[in-house]
Design goal:
76 residues, alpha+beta, YefM-like fold, 3-stranded mixed beta sheet, 3 strands, 20% strand
Length: 76
Amino acid sequence: MKSMSVRDMKAHWSEVEAQVRAGETIEVLNRGKPSVRIVPAAPRIITDWDDHLATAIPGSGQTAEEIVAADRKGRW
């Protein structure tokens, strides 16, 4: 893990960002004491869930439209 001052981080932000994007962790020091740790972002996990409403009510066997219609009970 690398360490640098706030001043150096501000002055060389594009280099810091590139290093973090490459997987490096950087600790930022404020007046010689650790204040912040910059770590790479974890990749987002996108869930592929085709018909979430139909599977939200287990065992119903109904389509999404039927579930919504039954919930509304003629209100609309």
